[in-house]
Here is the input.
Amino acid sequence: MLEGERREVETEKVVQRGWLFDVDGVLSHLVEKRNTERELLERILAMLEKGEPVALNTGRQVDFAVEKVFKELEAMTKDKSIFQNLLLVAEKGAIQISYGSDGSYKEEIDNSITVPQYLQNEIKELVGREFSEIMFFDTGKRTMVSVEMVDGGDLDEFKKRQAELNSLLQEMLVKHGLDKDYKLDPTRISTDVENRHVGKHLGAKKVLDWLKKLRIKPQEFITFGDSRSDLGMAEEIFRNGLKVEMVFVGGKELIEGKEFD
Here is the structure.
């Protein structure tokens, strides 16, 4: 081993675990859209205090995750230094928020994967015209489109109308010749229209890149999710030759037929 390589390995901080969490349905209640289990946040603080890195990997807009998780955590401790080991990857890998040494937020955004504005406008008009009683167009997203269940909505009713929406959105992509570059990603409370390159796998990749910069090396990773697309977190980590365990908290029917290593 060369001297420079030896110094780099020696400066790595080895920790027992790295943690990746989806937000909706995991850290926030699907219907109430807020954290209803304070113990979850207390556990996350304990992880950070041990020096273990924690990442939120969500399709949500930045402001939602900051308000519902970051701000809640900040209010629960006086030691802000632990948040340097906390990362938010929002809009499925397109935007990152991390803490600077002074406690301020640092944002990175990839504008190259943004959904065309004319398509956003057409989808917004469709949702307002035909689905507004159960869904809304999320105007807070910057790189993708999300059509989400209204606060307090009925999950069964949403699921039924979601199937109609998805069919219309797919027709829209084909009509504009965008189906090769963009895709639909339905979750339990939303349907996203996004660049084919984004997803929970991209979010996990961004987390691994972040850990390399911090020189933190978890011996294993634990990922949490409740939608089929969340499996991409564990799959990406496994592809990188790292030990990972996936905790799936959604219904078993959502991963029926899915094979795991």
